[in-house]
């Protein structure tokens, strides 16, 4: 491996070959960390604005202290870090189905790993977010039936562009209804999407939740030298 490129880990998984890479970008003068699944890029440390916005927008809609948050999808840890930056957060459970991703953080192979693992409020759960969302037990195996103030999801590319076709049921009315059951009254569901807002999906959220909206997040793409827009969907659970 050259000093400008290094494959830090490579593992087969049930949904394809997973790799963690570090490369030096000579134009920007920074080290870039990337996660790939097969030939697809899952995440890059160059593009984190919307992952951070997912946490900040979701938590901005909440009141009170000691907030209990669940995040689906660990990735490079930017959503989790943004959650923990909010001092009102009392606990964070991060669910990821890929043990390798959890290992990378616990072993310090990714930049945010040491910070996340050192925070006593943060705990990683190895599990299938979508299966847990459909279950009665929910997202915390240590506390079955636990309800959260917010559930923030960043796994699939969008509600229509899925990493695994089996995830499709989650985005329908029944799947969203099951997800809502794991929220406290007035709790927030936040969803990251790589695409622009989909009015049909926002309407589907509004059928299940008390309110729903789509927030766009636009940032500069240094490779294309132009702005790029992604979406954060936000939905509020019905009150007591």
Question: Which CATH class applies here?
Answer: Alpha Beta
Outline, from the CA principal axes? Answer: globular
Number of DSSP helical runs: 7
| Helicity level | 10-25%
Number of E-type strands: 11
Strand order of the largest sheet: 7-6-5-8-9-11-10
Kindly report how far apart the N and C termini lie: 57 Å
CATH homologous superfamily caption: Vaccinia Virus protein VP39
The oligomeric state is: single chain
Largest sheet: 7 strands, mixed
Number of domains: 1
CATH architecture descriptor text: 3-Layer(aba) Sandwich
- Residue windows where pLDDT falls under 50 for at least 5 positions: none
The fraction of residues assigned to DSSP E strands is 35-45%
CATH fold-level topology = Rossmann fold
**C-alpha Rg (nearest Å):** 17 Å
The run of helices and strands is EEEEHEHEHHEHEHEHEE
What's the average pLDDT?
Answer: 94
Please describe the topology of this protein.
Blueprint: E1 5-13, E2 16-25, E3 30-37, E4 40-44, H1 49-60, E5 67-72, H2 78-84, E6 89-96, H3 99-106, H4 113-118, E7 122-126, H5 129-134, E8 148-153, H6 173-180, E9 183-193, H7 199-208, E10 211-221, E11 226-236
Parallel strand pairs: 5-6, 5-8, 6-7, 8-9
Antiparallel strand pairs: 1-2, 2-3, 3-4, 9-11, 10-11
Helix pairs in contact: 1-2, 6-7
Polypeptide structure, described:
- The structure is a single chain.
- By secondary structure, this protein is an alpha/beta fold.
- The protein has a single domain, classed as Vaccinia Virus protein VP39 (Rossmann fold, 3-Layer(aba) Sandwich).
- It contains 7 helices and 11 strands.
- The radius of gyration is 17 Å and the shape is globular.
